[in-house]
Amino acid sequence: MHCWIYRSPRRDEMYLYLAREDDFDVLPETLLRGFGSPQAVMSLKLDEQRPLARARVTEVIDALREQGYFLQLPPKLRPALYFGD
User: Cβ-count burial of 32 within 10 angstroms (0-12 exposed, 13-18 middle, 19+ buried)?
Assistant: First the structure.
């Protein structure tokens, strides 16, 4: 399955996968408003045998088939705090 990936200009490391290039009509209005104006990153051929870095490829494929998009949220980052000795 082929998909197109866009990044959010508002939130670092938030990506949107679309089943059809520039098909933003499938997105809920509130999602698109919060995401900002999508910036194209790349197109990619998804294959269940080829893993993705931050999402399960089967979840992405299923979402693309069912709703036409998949939203990848930023990872939860925890700062390393030093409290002294």
Answer: middle
- Count of structural domains, the chain: 1
Q: Which of 46, 53, 63 is nearest to 2 (CA)?
A: 46
Q: What is the pLDDT of residues 8-20, one digit of tens each?
A: 999 889 999 999 9
What per-residue confidence (pLDDT) applies to 76?
A: 76
Q: What is the pTM of this model?
A: 0.84
In a domain, 25, yes or no: yes
- Domain membership of residue 20 as a residue range: 2-72
